[in-house]
Amino acid sequence: MAAHRCSLSALLLIICSLLVFIVADSEKATLTGDHHATAVDNLQTVTETEEGAAAEEPAVEEERRWEETVVEEATADKEDTSAPETVVQSSVPQPKDDFQEELVIRPLHSGDIYASFQFRTLWETDFMRGNKVSHYRLFPKSLGQVISKFSVRELHISFTQGYWRTMQWGQPFLPSPPGAELWVWFQDSVTDVDGTWKELTNVLSGIFCASLNFIDSTNTVQPSASFKPLGIGNVTDHRFLRYATLPREIVCTENLTPWKKLLPCGSKAGLAVLLKSEKLFHSSFHSQAVHIRPVCQDWQCKTTSWELRQTLNVVFDLHTPGQGKLEWSLFKMFSRTLTEACPLASSSKIYIDITDDPQGEQFEVSPATHLLSQAMVLGDRRTFSVYDLTQQITFGTVRSLNLLIRWKSSEGDMLRPLLHAERYVAGYGLQTGEIHTLMYNNHPYRSFPVLLLDSVPWYLRLYIHTLTVTSKGKDNKPSYIHYQPSKDRVRPHLLEMLVQLPPNSVTEVTVQFERALLKWTEYTPDPNHGFYVGSSVISSLVPSIVAMDTNSTREQPLFSSFFPCKEESSYFMRVYTEPLLVNLPTPDFSMPYNVICLTCTVVAVGYGSLYNLLTRSFQIEEPSPGLAKRIANIIRKMRGVPPL
Amino acid sequence: MGLLSDPNRRRALISLLTRLNAPICVVCYMAGVAWFMGLAFEPFTLRTYMSENAMGSTMVEERFPAGERALGTGREFSAHKKKAGGMPVDWLVKTMQSRGLEVFTQRFSRRLPFPDEDKERYMVKGTNVYGILRAPRAPRTEALVLSAPCSPGDDNNQAVGVLLGLAQYFRNQVFWAKDIIFLVNEHDLIGMQAWLEGYHHTNTTGMDWSPLQGRGGSIQAALSLELSSDVVTSLDLVLEGLNGQLPNLDLANLFYAFCQKIGVLCTTQGKLQRNDWDSVSGYSHAVQTMMLMVMKQASGRPWGDHGLFLRYHIEAATIKGINSFRQYKTDATTIGRLLEGMYRKLNNLLERLHQSYFFYLMPSLSHFVSIGYYMPAFGLLALILLLRALDLWIQLATPPPGVLSVLTPLVISHLTGVALYTLPIHFQEIAVEHFPVSETEAVVLTAIAVYTAGLALPHNTHRLLTGRGTENGWKVLKLVAVLYLAVLLGCTALINFSLGFILALTLVPVAAFVTPDLCSATPACTLLFSVFLFQELQEMPVSFLDGWMLYLSVISQGILDHALYGSLVYPLVALLVYPCWLLFWNILFWK
């Protein structure tokens, strides 16, 4: 056997040496091909726009990659794979996996600070081919096993504490609803999707220390149009999609710790050292997410790799009234400074959004940097100062980076976000109610269609015939409606609509509902708190404000590229409304004992006798005759004389 | 029930009830009144206690420092109010924004059905300004409200000052779990009604308002603040809301607990609580306090801005600062600390306030009478009606009672009721044209005219009655009327005990003993009597003429409350109590 393997490897070595040149060529193609962006023209078929951030310092990049693969080479022999491509890589090192990290900081108009972390791990492997993947380097093993065991094609999970205030803060890079949200596309090889989904949620519940195990059929829906795959692949049959939210989920440190453990450097080095829970949870908004999807490795999309994106968005409230001098620093926000990049990262950068302040009039950033970068983010061209943590010069003489922004003036108004939405429950009393969803199109002259997704629990019985959509006082007929009625205790209502929002208008969607009376074991331990209804999801291609971007060769940072665009003039946007808290008719749970006692008494004492009184007629019975009289009567009877 | 299934004993019982009917009724009446008066006696009442765990055991520390600055803001507000000649909307928006709130405004307008002479308004137009303090990391599902009415004149500026001061202080705290809405509403109750209708997107009274732009989810509790002087001697808690609804008792307990903790004098119905319950004056003080609450609750009108929240199942109360001649003074900082403490406790709530009582009477702020204790008083009064009905039924049992003959007076009296309900507002224009009166007077006088016209009806309708003049005829009518009244009062007492009890107190003896020869009182007399009693209880006795004027204005206010806020007392009296009583009037003029 050993001899056989030896001869095989010798043979392969020869092939390899022949292949070296070819591979080197193809790698060049890969590096340049990274810039290619693919786009597909359908709103529903969302595709991937993949930019490599590697172009800035290709020399450094390449060197690092080579180093990494050497490490891999040592371990690659242990893998008992006979696939030729593996052997090729072991002899001709090629970057098989790659890790990038970045932090975007955007000073908001409201005086708050928005910090967005993104960590991306790319791995060229195939989980689906017979569960052979057993060696993990950068990619977390726990998630890899999840992907292969449950045949997951795409997985998106987010945990959010707080509500993104679109009107104050503008658009987030990655929107997420309050609470937990999970949506998964399964491979089309999965036969029992519901069973797999159930298992998957339980496993994820363990991985992220969250109550995802409460996801069951009563809060899971299969949206037909709103959630399309973000990675490659053209299967859009929504039988393989599951979507669920838990609006009540509270996010805290126990969710952050497992999330941080998925990072290659943990929280030991790189940007992740900033993620200290005592500061992250002392903020106005906190959201962490994990997105897994398959992406193209090269421009021909011959090989696919898996992308794991871990994102963490946080908004710090810097409101200090009465103080003229506003300033923040990394230390003030995170109580840490940066000293190094994650050694495993191929790129580690900090971007500061200085679009609103190109001349440095409103605030100044120190230490200053001359590296600038421009990117199209959410239909807007933004300018960023870039700090490259892989370069020692960034840390200066003190060997630590503590970015500092000082505000000079707090003038300037934010552009109103083009699309935002709100939702509330109207009416009073505990019998009926009405859900109002308001969608604002603030674009001055263009109308655009939006997809509204509403998933309402069964205990609010929607009267779908009362559904009205009005804009500017007129009836607005949705061009597409997908409605799946609820089944009590089995599945929720699902309502999806494609609505055209006229320019500069408010579109109001109302639907009436009746509050169901639950069985007494179905109430939560705190029934008087109310019951949550998850956020509506509004997905749309929003026309961009800025002119079309013609300079496609310019490098673009990662965060600008998550939601792909149909065309540069409009961009994909997803808006979540606030969740609803609805009170249901609730019995007084402190009373059952009294009620049981009282009803039992009333039934026992009152009912029987009252029933008697009402149904029977009473007559006075003759007192029973004495013995003598009875005998006399018998005798009289025998004689045929009437008795006494 | 074995007692009743034995025909002999049943016969005995029935004969006892019929023979001693009148004495038993009298005893029941006396017992009912005595029971009610006993409710105010302290040993018979319960001490209040905090039922809600989330507010009970947790400790909060009040640190609000800026009372003086808040008063300064109040003076600034007053200056701007004078300059603007009403609500200084722009200034308020700017001030709230500078305090870090999300600020929104709401415009509303309302044409009253007829001019309100008490408050001198007819076409009401105004703007509400509210700022939302967003709780960090909260998903906008729950909110608390602090409101201060912006009233014309120099009233209530301090309340707005304290509200803005609290907003500024609250903004810098990190512990909020619910959004806090700071609302300054113009035109007191009308503005509040507009805001609440806008918030819940309902329209019960036909008011015009612009839709709200910002919301904070479901409102858990609300406080309304009324302060008109820089220092106050005591704080008064007002609980009575629309249609006699009361907030959960825990809200009152919370207020009382913080007054005790901080050391502020607190009152309810403007009455301090006294410790000498065993003396006659102490007892009569408690009776006065309780009777005031009963009268206010019976009126069915909101006695503060909080009253309108109750319709939406939001626990709310009004806190009024009172400046009298007492020695003890409390400054704005202390009031701010009190409110801070209350809001922090409300912020801790996990569920809506529901643990404690919703039906109660308060003879003092530290004692309460729960529904289980006061209902027997009403039950005893209602029993009289049932006993009389039983008596009549037995008297009528032998000959076939012509029940259908009752239909005519029933229909006629109800039509009169409908006339009383609709005519005053619809005929005001005609009345103003033809008589030298103002619109308000026209409405009130029309109401009184319809009312008295109804009294004349029995004379004219007798011709239509088939069983006229017969002994059984009026007995059948009375049987129906007595049962009708019993059901009516029973339902009323379940919804609004005070109203039911006061109506029972005055109508039951009349209803019980009316025969074709005896004269009787009327619901109008009940109202008149109540007006005088109320003034007496408030220690502001009035002369007869003033009382009469007050009586007229109470009628117009009742009609207005119905039109503006949806108070149900006026329709209840006009559509149900008055026709029912007309039936008795029919009996009186039977022959």
Automatic annotation (TrEMBL), chain A:
Keywords from the named record: Signal
Signal peptide: 1-24
GO cellular component: GPI-anchor transamidase complex
Acidic residues bias locations: 49-60
Gene Ontology BP term (one): attachment of GPI anchor to protein
InterPro entries to which the protein is assigned, alphabetical: PIG-T
Chain residue ranges for the region called Disordered: 49-91
Pfam families documented for this protein: Gpi16
Identification of the protein by name: Phosphatidylinositol glycan anchor biosynthesis class T
Organism (species): Cyclopterus lumpus
UniProtKB/TrEMBL annotation, chain B:
Predominant localisation class: endoplasmic reticulum
Pfam families: Gaa1
Gene Ontology cellular component terms for the protein in this record: GPI-anchor transamidase complex
GO BP annotation list: attachment of GPI anchor to protein; GPI anchor biosynthetic process
Transmembrane segments: 20-41, 371-390, 402-422, 442-458, 479-504, 510-534, 541-560, 572-590
Pathway: Glycolipid biosynthesis; glycosylphosphatidylinositol-anchor biosynthesis
Membrane topology according to the record: Multi-pass membrane protein
Keywords noted in UniProt: Disulfide bond, Endoplasmic reticulum, Glycoprotein, GPI-anchor biosynthesis, Membrane, Transmembrane, Transmembrane helix
Matching SUPFAM superfamilies: Zn-dependent exopeptidases (SSF53187)
Localization per Swiss-Prot or TrEMBL: Endoplasmic reticulum membrane
Subunit structure: Heteropentamer. Part of the GPI-anchor transamidase complex, consisting of PIGK, PIGT, PIGS, PIGU and GAA1. Interacts with PIGK.
Function field: Component of the glycosylphosphatidylinositol-anchor (GPI-anchor) transamidase (GPI-T) complex that catalyzes the formation of the linkage between a proprotein and a GPI-anchor and participates in GPI anchored protein biosynthesis. Binds GPI-anchor.
Protein name: GPI-anchor transamidase component GPAA1
Annotated source species: Cyclopterus lumpus (Lumpsucker)
Lineage of origin: Eukaryota, Metazoa, Chordata, Craniata, Vertebrata
